[in-house]
Design goal:
222 residues; alpha+beta; 5-stranded mixed β-sheet; 28% strand
Length: 222
């Protein structure tokens, strides 16, 4: 914590600084969504695919995609809500549904087959900070627009994106003004990215995000 305090104490939240590099070549696409998932804690989302196994009942088992309403369409029981549930919670819900009419004490297991749902966190000097679901491709400008744009106190020259690359936390800074003027490319934003817009009143939020990451990732890969 002492090291963190020293490191954060030297950070500036306005103007361009070299403590977090601007769009370095090493800031590539993140690890696959599935590789980063803690299955015990992950909350299922639309477009995710789950593998449902009902012990000794292959006719009801299989791979199921979560639809736009957050449900999977199961044989016999029909639509079952899966969104915002863990795999363990969904298995329990399926056991309850199947046991109500069709089987005595059914044994159901659920595993993530493919993670497709995307969530992006946009924070700092932004008009509507929050966690946003994303479908399809997304750029930094679009992510900021999705959060209702930067606030009046924002420093658009200092937008930091955090992501996991090769199992390590990494950060890169971007100049939103230069992107808007066509002087810099608009980088792609991926699921699980954290976008923080700097600004005079966002120091606490920016610092909180930094403190949630390993100290060395503020400056480089580790």
């Amino acid at each position: 914590m002492a090291i963190a305090a020293v490191a954060l104490g030297g950070c500036s939240y306005s103007g361009k600084r070299a403590d977090i590099a601007y769009a370095p070549s090493t800031f590539t696409a993140p690890d696959s969504q599935f590789a980063m998932v803690d299955e015990d804690a992950y909350r299922i989302g639309p477009q995710d695919i789950v593998k449902v196994t009902v012990f000794e009942v292959p006719e009801v088992s299989g791979d199921f995609e979560v639809n736009a309403l957050g449900k999977i369409d199961m044989p016999l029981v029909g639509g079952v809500t899966a969104q915002n549930l863990t795999t363990t919670e969904l298995a329990a819900a399926l056991e309850k549904s199947l046991g109500a009419k069709y089987f005595q004490n059914p044994d159901v297991t659920v595993a993530l087959k493919e993670v497709r749902s995307q969530r992006v966190t946009v924070d700092g000097s932004i008009n509507a900070p929050g966690i946003y679901p994303v479908a399809g491709n997304l750029t930094l400008l679009q992510a900021v627009a999705m959060a209702k744009g930067v606030s009046e106190d924002a420093n658009p020259e200092r937008v930091v994106v955090f992501r996991t690359i090769d199992g390590r936390r990494a950060a890169a800074a971007f100049d939103l003004t230069a992107i808007r003027e066509g002087l810099s490319p608009d980088p792609e934003i991926y699921g699980n990215d954290i976008v923080v817009v700097a600004g005079s009143r966002s120091k606490a939020a920016f610092r909180d995000v930094l403190q949630s990451l390993p100290v060395l990732s503020i400056f480089r890969f580790f």
